[in-house]
Amino acid sequence: MSNTPINSTNTNDVSMFDSVLARLDEAAKLMNLSPEVSEVLRSPVKQIKVSLPVSMDNGKIQVFKGYRTVHSTHLGPSKGGIRYAMDVNADEVMALAAWMSFKCAVANLPYGGAKGGIKCDPRSMSVGELERLSRAYAQSMKDVFGVNKDIPAPDMGTSGREMAWILDELNKVTGEDSPGIITGKPIALGGSLGRDAATGRGVMVNTFAALKKMNLDPKNVTAVVQGFGNVGSHAARLLSEKGIKIVGIGDHTASFYNENGIDIAAALAYAEKNNRILKGFNGATEIKSSELLICKCDVLVPAALQNVINEENAHKIQAKLIVEGANGPTMPKADTILNDKNIICVPDILANSGGVTVSYFEWVQNKAGYYWTEEEVNTKHDFKMEIAFEAVWNNVAKYKTSMRIAAYITALQKLEQGVKLKGAY
Ligand code: NAD
Predict the structure, then answer these.
(1) Which of 158, 215, 242, 363 could join 154 in a cystine, given CB atoms 3.0 to 4.6 angstroms apart?
(2) Is 82 in the pocket of ligand 1 (CB under 6 A)?
(3) What is the position in ligand 1's atom list of the atom closest to the CA of 154?
(4) Span 328-357, mean pLDDT?
(5) How far is the CA of 301 from the centre of ligand 1 (A)?
(6) How far apart are CA 390 and CA 206, in angstroms?
(7) pLDDT surpasses 60 at 407
(8) Which ranges in the chain are annotated with CATH 3.40.50.720?
């Protein structure tokens, strides 16, 4: 494994939660959101911070910081991933939890929003250390997580493996086999077919929906994808399988460009054999990581980190369409620059909602004890995603605003009902 630590953001001095509030305020003003509802949504329901002492392989005990924020429960139990990265902190988790509330509302899922994380560097830890850390986190959150309460899932730095350990630990606490307490599980433990690729699939469906509105023929379109993990690799694969030429890819180890198109199947096979990293891939020219986002292409898919599109590089972006696979890749000031350049940006809370949509399907299947085929999952996913895209697109015209603010408005219209109907003490 590479020893480069997973950093979830490269601009730590900027409050991510402030970015959420800036967008919330802009949308609230345009749609005339009730100030009380706005006030409720500005304040997360619950914030938990824990210390996790873990026995390391060297015989010493290391104490890790763990977090969980439940942002809202107005539309259903809270839902959101668990991130393992060195930059995990309370502000980031709070912002990601709020985005989950908006994302679930845009996708019309019966969920509130939450997020969790552990400040750690998973790439430098052994499997045994990661298992003990995951189990310690599950124990510390046993009163927070629940199949009808708060349902975690994978995020950056975690996968089905960590979900399986957390599931096992939670089931030991309750003495029940309750697979729906966590999603993104391995198939053998009640995971859903199609979940692994779902976020990338959602990116693909949103890309095609936007290209159609822009009257661009996918056969003549080129794309660049930043990030080659769960979201980026599936997005690149699905876009290329559907005929879009992928000219740029990159991860934390290396970035590549090939104007004639990159063989994504070859890149995937290379990464699979190379500890899931791209360094050393020879199917394209290696470029600087800072060049990847600004190189010539029609569609840009940031699918790695937050805050990567900022005031410094936004005016150099050449893409006509940005589809946000990552959470929070574009900073608020960059939004203004992109809007001025007429670059359409399908925002994270719509573009990457495929993952939580199929997590919802996984939860439904777990509750029913009846499992769907991959084709059923994909069909239902694509249908839901297209409806969500149309709802946001219609609000662009109705409120004469960007897709990002239109997506917030779409979410707030639902959340407003939930907050008002449930009322207060
Ligand atoms: P992952 O850990 O599977 O992959 C992250 C990728 O980003 C890796 O390829 C890594 O090398 C790359 N990366 C890290 N630092 C980089 C850098 N400095 N420059 C370029 N690339 C870098 O994570 P993931 O699950 O694919 O998540 C990626 C983003 O998508 C995150 O913002 C996450 O919150 C968001 N997201 C994930 C899901 C999901 O289902 N996994 C759902 C919605 C949103």
Answers:
(1) 158
(2) no
(3) 41
(4) 97
(5) 11
(6) 10
(7) yes
(8) 198-351
pLDDT tens sequence across 201-241: 999 999 999 999 999 999 999 999 999 999 999 999 999 99
Q: pLDDT band at residue 10, thresholds of 50, 70 and 90?
A: very low
Contact 354 CB / ligand 1 (< 6 Å): no
pLDDT of residue 1: 38
Average pLDDT value for residue range 160-177: 96
The pLDDT, as a whole number, for residue 3 is 41
Q: List where CATH 3.40.50.10860 sits in the chain.
A: 16-28+45-178
Distance (Å) from CA 416 to ligand 1 centroid: 31
Closest residue by Cα to residue 251 from 275, 280, 224, 228: 228
Phi, psi values for residue 74, rounded to 5°: -75, -25
* Residue 248 Cβ < 6 Å to ligand 1: no
Instruction: Give the pLDDT confidence score for residue 357 in this predicted structure.
Output: 98
Q: What is the pLDDT of residues 90-101, one digit of tens each?
A: 999 999 999 999
Whether 359 has a pLDDT exceeding 60, the answer reads yes
What positions carry a catalytic annotation? 115
Q: What letters, b where the CB count within 10 A reaches 16 and e where it falls short, cover 381-410? A: bbebbeebbebbbebbeeeebbbbbbbbbb
What CATH number was assigned to the domain covering residues 16-28+45-178?
Answer: 3.40.50.10860
154 close to ligand 1 (CB < 6 Angstrom): yes
User: Domain 198-351 - what CATH class?
Assistant: alpha beta
DSSP-assigned states of every residue in 27-83:
HHHHHT--HHHHHHHTS-SEEEEEEEEEE-TTS-EEEEEEEEEEEE-SSSSEEEEEE
Q: How far apart are CA 268 and CA 257, in angstroms?
A: 15
Confidence at residue 195, expressed as pLDDT on a 0 to 100 scale: 96
Residue whose Cα lies nearest atom 38 of ligand 1: it is 155
